[in-house]
Design a protein that fits this description.
- The chain is α/β, with parallel strands linked by helices.
- The protein has 2 domains: 4-91, Winged helix-like DNA-binding domain superfamily/Winged helix DNA-binding domain (Arc Repressor Mutant, subunit A); 114-274, Glucose-6-phosphate isomerase like protein, domain 1 (Rossmann fold, 3-Layer(aba) Sandwich), CATH 3.40.50.
- The chain is 53% helix and 9% strand.
- Strands 2-1-3-4-5 form a 5-stranded parallel beta sheet, sandwiched between helices.
- Helix 7 packs across helix 12.
- It is elongated and about 70 Å long.
- It starts with a helix and ends in an 8-residue tail after the last helix.
């Protein structure tokens, strides 16, 4: 039988790759070698314990221990789940699968990291402060701009700053009635960090969206919203680096729309009418 953790993961995501990755740091060096083999989306047809053990120069017992650490009953059950998760993409080449799997990993990590109470809390904050400012430089500026365009349709008084000079100058507009949100995938962008630091000093509420916990800067923002980052995400290794942040923005937008929903829907309807878009009720 599958463990409860495995059942929950597979019910959300048919791939077993996120299950392997979630246990990766608990594995021995031998087990990590096995994990790497399957994470790379192997195309070998024979995945029997005998064939794989000879291919990786590990014992069949190691394969069994590896599978059990992931929550499976044994190696045979693991391979069964692994093979089933690849049936739908068997006609896709390795490059296409790598891109789609990257999106899948981002969704899985977002699903694990998202703090529902935090999303509700921040959604309410957006209405509690007179002005909202979004700071984002480089690829994060795309997210900052999207944030403004999405939320201004619902009547939010929001502006985004996408370059260092603009962020520095914006301090003259920031006060204790401001909510300032910084976006930095690495959590280390100096201009964004400095913008949050200066805003906080003027009494503003500050929030950081990042894929990393950078403790040396934690004092400069009141809330840290973790996004589902991947290795080499900042250099656009396979997918656009702003994707994980945009997913969180969509979650936040949904909660914000639900909060005082009637008023928000009326503002959205008005906005769409002004841009000649036919509004349809569900």
């Amino acid at each position: 039988m599958f463990s409860k953790a495995v059942k929950d993961m597979l019910s959300y995501n048919e791939s077993v790759i996120p299950i392997i990755e979630s246990h990766y740091m608990e594995l021995t060096n031998v087990e990590k070698a096995i994990a790497n083999y399957f994470i790379e989306q192997v195309t070998d047809e024979d995945l029997s314990s005998k064939a794989v053990s000879q291919r990786l120069f590990v014992s069949e017992a190691s394969l069994s221990r590896f599978a059990k650490k992931l929550g499976f009953g044994g190696y045979r059950q693991f391979v069964f789940a692994y093979n089933n998760s690849h049936q739908l993409d068997k006609n896709l080449d390795i490059l296409t699968r790598q891109v789609l799997n990257s999106y899948q990993k981002v969704l899985e990590k977002t699903y694990s990291l998202v703090d529902n109470d935090q999303m509700i809390r921040i959604a309410k904050m957006l209405d509690e402060y007179e002005r909202v400012y979004i700071y984002g430089i480089g690829s994060s500026s795309v997210v900052a701009r999207e944030f403004k365009l999405r939320f201004m349709r619902l009547g939010l008084d929001v502006d985004y700053l996408a370059e260092a000079h603009s962020i520095r100058m914006n301090i003259t507009r920031v006060n204790e009635k401001s909510l300032v949100i910084g976006i930095s995938i690495s959590g280390k962008n100096e201009e964004v960090i400095d913008g949050l630091k200066r805003a906080q000093a003027k009494g503003a509420k500050t929030i950081m969206l990042s894929a990393a916990k950078v403790y040396e800067y934690r004092q400069y923002y009141d809330e840290l919203v973790l996004i589902g980052g991947l290795k080499n995400l900042e250099i656009s290794d396979k997918i656009s680096p702003q994707i994980p942040a945009l997913i969180l923005i969509d979650v936040l937008y949904t909660h914000y729309l639900h909060y005082n929903k009637v008023s928000k829907e009326e503002k959205l309807k008005m906005t769409l009418q002004y841009v000649d878009y036919e509004f349809e009720k569900e």
